[in-house]
Design a protein that fits this description.
The protein is α+β, with helices and mostly antiparallel strands. It has eight helices and nine strands. About 11% of the residues have low confidence. It comes from Bursaphelenchus okinawaensis.
């Protein structure tokens, strides 16, 4: 991490204007792993998601074991960040990256990867790990209980026990919108900081969502260039660029809407994945 940026941010965090007890840790790049770092930062600052992962970690401690899977590695990483004594610093997600490369040959190289493909793979891996955990519980109890796979495993550490409703709530709280930028776009996409969604099937059909994280792609295609992340924490916006963390103004987000036609020949820095969280 850049010493100047780190020191400057730490001073701001210790001031009265920046309240709370949040940790802001950059992640070491192990050779074109910015696609991974950017998604991990976005997920960490999606509070409902983080709470569930940390609860899973606590659950594993209670039963006296630690799962050697991607979910276990993610839980360990999130716990390491959340329990750091200093508020600003750098952490190397080595165990997570090693496990990722071992489990999927697509990521077992030093080439740039698509952040959205990684996000999909990670969420599927988490779902499979949770489903497997519930299946083992069912076997231990001789099949006397009915298990709803991921739906119940998600509810077992944090949500209610209402089957599909549990999964729906979990997904809605961590609503993500993928901006289809597999090819370089020469026009601007204005994404809102606040999003209103209507769903007539829900009791609360009119819900507001707040933008909490943005994975930004810098370059011409998703498999080339670089990824960074913008996150919102305690009404402040911060930029994570691998091991570099710095505070930014909210107005800076407009820089990542994309390029206008007159700048279409330049490499763009454009929002690639948006993370919205349901407002309580």
């Amino acid at each position: 991490m850049g010493t100047t940026a780190s020191s400057h941010l730490e001073k701001e965090l210790n001031s009265d204007s920046f309240m709370g007890n949040e940790r802001f840790y950059g992640l070491v790049n192990f050779g074109n792993t910015c696609y991974c770092n950017s998604v991990l930062q976005a997920l960490y600052f999606c509070q409902p998601f983080r709470d569930k992962i940390l609860a899973y970690k606590q659950q594993q401690r209670k039963i006296g074991g630690q799962k050697d899977n991607l979910l276990g590695c993610l839980a360990e990483l999130f716990c390491n960040i959340a329990t750091q004594k200093r508020r600003v610093g750098t952490i190397a997600p080595k165990r997570f990256v090693t496990k990722l490369k071992k489990d999927n040959e697509l990521f077992d190289n030093f080439m740039q990867q698509d952040a959205h493909e990684f996000l999909n793979y990670l969420l599927n891996a988490i779902s499979e790990a949770l489903t497997s955990s519930e299946e083992k519980k069912r076997e231990q109890q001789n099949g006397n209980i009915k298990v709803n796979g991921v739906k119940k495993s998600l509810s077992s550490f944090g949500n209610d026990r209402s089957g599909s409703r549990s999964e729906l709530t979990w997904i809605q709280e961590i609503f993500q919108d993928h901006l289809n930028r597999y090819t370089k776009l020469s026009y601007r996409v204005l994404f809102p900081l606040e999003l209103r969604l209507f769903n007539l099937k829900e009791e609360n059909s009119d819900r507001l969502y707040d933008l909490v994280a943005v994975v930004v792609h810098c370059g011409s295609t998703p498999n080339r260039g670089h990824y960074i992340t913008l996150v919102k924490s305690q009404n402040y916006w911060l930029l994570f660029d691998d091991d570099i963390v710095d505070k930014i103004e909210e107005s800076t987000i407009e820089d990542f809407f994309g390029l206008s036609d007159c700048n279409s020949q330049k490499n763009s820095e454009s929002a690639y994945i948006l993370f919205y969280q349901a407002r309580e």
